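Worked problem 6 (solution included).
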Amino acid sequence: MRDESKQTTPSSLIPHPSSLKEHWLLDPSVTYLNHGSFGATPKVVLAKQDEFRRRMEQEPVRFLIRELEPLLDDVRRTLGTFIGAPPENLAFVPNATAGVNAVLSSLTFSADDELLVTNHEYNACRNALESIASRSGARVNVVDIPFPVGSPDEIFDSVMSAATGRTRLLLIDHITSQTALIMPVARIVTAMNVRGIDTLIDGAHAAGHIPLDIRAVGPAYYTGNLHKWVCAPKGAAFLYVRADKRDAIRPVAISHGANSPRTDRSRFHLEFDWTGTYDPSPWLAVSEALRFLPTLVEGGWAEVMRRNHTLVLRAREILCDALRIEKPAPDDMLGAMASVSLPDGEPTPLSPLSIDPLQDALLERFSIEVPVMQWPSPPKRVLRVSAQLYNTVDEYDQLADALHQLL
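Solution. The predicted structure is:
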């Protein structure tokens, strides 16, 4: 890395802020290009969350015992329409990792079984799969998918050729975290279903990012975050379980629903809707997030997704030109995020939540927040940019200039 002591951003490259940024609490002094990691919640959605919190604190018993279930059902119906899933097959979870763990911990495997996953899988969920496999003796079979990649066909062929007669389950990202690739999940699920292999889709980035119709995809299990691209509060996520699998899936925390005598609600909802005292306001604010974000542009959610996709393609073009590299994937394999390969970094592994020195330098010297991740293993690394309505092309020009100075 070059000496940073005299580096500055030319005034011509200081980005012009988007007028839409005022709807978020984001620090105006920071160029925030990392919506994909934790999302960012608009002010009006946070206000709705606060409204629910006040209602809860005014009379906790009334709210949590008498009022909560119908409120959750209302959100479930709204969410189900948005993601193409029957409300009766939807449960709320705090994040997609919790959804993956709920499914895996509910299933039984043996030493004769194989569990399939790709090398692009999110580390936390890969760890959950490895943990379950270690308890049962099942074998984890890792599909090596290259990056750069030429087409969805390469991914489809690699995954299908790795499936065997012993494969019980495929865990796969819908949109990969490190490499930002949209995986051909519909084709893969259809082919896996024909072979009698269930699929658990880690859709952490999908809802609000790309059009989503879970029924059309047809997996056994699908989990996704709502705090990312739907812009709901942190702690809002969902788990979909297909009707024929629903009775077998239980939350990680077993609580009162396990022996409830009630027959007016499914065991699935009785167990997942109450695992112990918690703050349900992130889930209850989801409907407001789904309502508000598409009002910021003419054309609703379809235009939100189109704008973000167009912007991230321009961002990747700027970065590839600056780094003098080719595009690592076709345009139609991207949504609102894009990753590019960087020169090698630290030779030793960083812990999963540690920050690469280059990422720190970008923030400290240029006020740019963007993730730099070791992938597939050190010293190899990638930089991933996100595009949300509050971002502008100028911000990616600023990033390209900063990289030119630091690398």
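Discussion: The radius of gyration is 22 Å.
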